[in-house]
Amino acid sequence: MKASVRKARKSDFDDVFKLIVELARFEKLKPPSKSAKKRLFNDSFGRKRKNNILVSTFDEYIIGYAFYFFTYSSFLAKKTLYLEDIFISKKLRSKGAGRLIFKELVKIAKKEKCGRVEWCVLDWNKNAIKFYDKLGAKPMNDWIYFRLTL
Which of 2, 23, 67, 79 would bridge 84 by S-S if both were Cys, CB 3.0 to 4.6 A apart? Predict the structure, then answer.
């Protein structure tokens, strides 16, 4: 039994959404509302997809996910794969699922001729920071992310 990664299917959505709720609890945030859940499904699997989802499975159970989409770098003049969320259920971490997701994201970014992969991490999430460091990722100390919520 080992972890694997694949593109999410519509039939995976309820399991992915349970993990989104688990992530919200972990980050001490309010989980998505019913209307947000519906938008999330439509944006992920509808005609006008706005994002992509990978799922990680272990012993055929969905244990994690990654939401990603593409932005653009005017300086590189190439697409950027932006990782919005990555989450592996706490009880099933350390099975290689996170590393497999990142390998697949890099593979996708190369196929799409992206110049980079970007994401952000909460400064208090020391385990995630250690994980990213082991992957060879570097923090962007010169940049501060801002958010305007509408």
Answer: 67
User: Considering 65, 68, 82, 132, which one is annotated as catalytic?
Assistant: 132
DSSP conformation letters of 31-76: PPPHHHHHHHHHHHHSTT---EEEEEEETTEEEEEEEEEEEEETTT
- List domains and CATH numbers for the chain: 3-135 (3.40.630.30)
Give the tens place of pLDDT for each residue, 119-144.
999 889 898 999 899 898 998 888 88
Residues 95-108: pLDDT tens digits? 788 999 999 999 99
Active site residue 132: yes
Asked whether the beta carbons of 50 and 69 are under 8 A apart, the reply is yes
